[in-house]
Every structure is written in C-alpha cells, then in structure tokens.
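Tip: read the tokens left to right.
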C-alpha cells in the first residue's frame, strides 16, 4: 500500500525571503534553491538539502502539495522532483489531477458550501465595510470560494481580527492570519476532505501531513502522523494533538526537518 504525504507549502516547505529566519552567521547559512518566480522576481525558496529530500520522497510515497493557494498561484511553483500526480488547491476547493481540476470534486464542494454556510458575497461585503483602508492593501477572492485581505501587519488592530472571527464563526466561516494575509474561509472547505479523497483513489493506508496555520489543523488531525514547525499560527498558540509532533525549528530549516521526518516515517511506517 502506498504512503500518502500531504503537506502545506508556504511557511511549511517553501519560504519567502521574509520568512526564511536565517538567524545563524552568514557564513553558516544554508544554500537556497529558488522554487517560485513571480513577475520576474524570485519569491519562494527551500534549502538545497530540502530539495534533494523532496526528490527522494517521491520515490517512497505519493506526495500531494496541499495549499490554500489558488490554482494559478500554485502552478507557478517549480518544486524539485517529478511533478505530483495530485495536488490540492484553494484549501480543498480544487483537486488537481495531472494539473487539471477534477470537475466532479469541485462541483461537490461548491454544492456543500451553498448548503452549509453564508455566501461569499456576504463576507466580501462585510470586509469592505469594516476593514480600514489605512491598513488594507488589497482585497481579493480566491477561485470564488473564499476571501482574503493583504494588510500592513504593524497597523492591523488585533481587536478587529477578533471581531471578524466572531462574526465569521456565526456564519459558518473561519478566519486565519498568515503573514500579511487575513483569510476568511468557509468551514466546510477543508484540506482534509480532499486528502481523504486522494487516499481513497490511491489506496494509501498511511497518511502523513505537515502544516503551520489554523487552516492546516484539520489536515493534521486527519493524518496518521503529523508535524508542525516552530513558527506560525499553530505554534503561537502551542497547538498540539495526539500523533502530532511540534518541531523546534523555525523558518526554512523547519521545512528541511519536516522532509526528513516524512522520509523517516515512509521508510519505517508505524
């Protein structure tokens, strides 16, 4: 039976320059590989060692990138190793098979959202009315599934985030703050549901997972074993659960450690 490895990408396996956390002396910093270019500029990195580990992982497991990114944002990432057969985008809203969204999966997801939570338009309108242009830089929707703001974190009032979370909770939505982005996501839109579908299709009997944010909690809980780095929303609240390992590493070295743990677990399952 294959082992399925479902991992978040941003601030879990790949890192922007602002998130690298290179705290060691410059001469001891790891060599980095750029894995994403946007508007002709390098955007995301992993260590060269992590790149080799990810390539090795593809030989022992079904690796499934599992991200809140839109399909367009995901497809500009150039991960080392063979192209994954499956990828999960838009927090589970799209299940890609060889780079193409599975229509039946997406249709089932959108039908469930219509039945179980407030519509996206209501959330978008609330964000427009309550977010202050002083600290909001952009307001976007992702694949007509969820909304997010790009903000100046230094100016963002914590009380506003708490009020938004309470408002969203009552309407079947959840709020997550990741770097400069504030996400409002329908609760039924989950990475874990899409991962279970991939496990069903592949016949995997062991699922491993990693992630750093509130939107990854359901993914970690659904896995047989999971890891979170020493940074991010989950680390900030000391989130833990059975079969979840909290790693001490922060920044890009956490991505390297996570891949080592994946490889170790695939080679010695159980």
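Filled-in amino acids:
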């Amino acid at each position: 039976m294959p082992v399925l490895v479902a991992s978040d990408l941003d601030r879990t396996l790949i890192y922007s320059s602002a998130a690298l956390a290179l705290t060691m002396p410059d001469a001891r910093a790891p060599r980095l590989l750029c894995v994403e270019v946007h508007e002709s500029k390098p955007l995301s990195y992993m260590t060269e060692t992590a790149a080799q580990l990810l390539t090795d992982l593809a030989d022992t497991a079904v690796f499934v990138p599992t991200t809140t990114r839109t399909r367009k944002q995901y497809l500009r990432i150039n991960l080392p190793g063979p192209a994954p057969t499956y990828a999960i985008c838009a927090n589970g809203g799209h299940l890609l098979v060889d780079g193409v969204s599975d229509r039946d999966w997406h249709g089932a997801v959108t039908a469930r959202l219509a039945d179980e939570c407030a519509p996206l338009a209501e959330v978008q309108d609330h964000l427009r009315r309550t977010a202050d242009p002083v600290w909001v830089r952009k307001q976007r929707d992702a694949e007509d599934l969820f909304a997010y703001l790009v903000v100046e974190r230094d100016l963002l009032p914590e009380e506003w985030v708490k009020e938004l979370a309470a408002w969203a909770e009552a309407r079947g939505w959840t709020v997550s703050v990741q770097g400069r982005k504030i996400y409002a996501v329908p609760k039924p839109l989950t990475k874990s549901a899409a991962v279970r579908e991939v496990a069903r299709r592949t016949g995997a009997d062991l699922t491993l997972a990693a992630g750093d944010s509130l939107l990854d909690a359901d993914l970690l809980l659904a896995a047989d074993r999971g890891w979170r780095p020493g940074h991010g929303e989950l680390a900030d609240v000391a989130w833990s659960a059975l079969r979840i390992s909290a790693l001490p590493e922060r920044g890009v070295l956490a991505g390297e450690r996570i891949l080592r743990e994946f490889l170790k677990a695939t080679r010695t399952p159980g």
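The longest helix spans residues 252-267. The chain has a mean pLDDT of 96.
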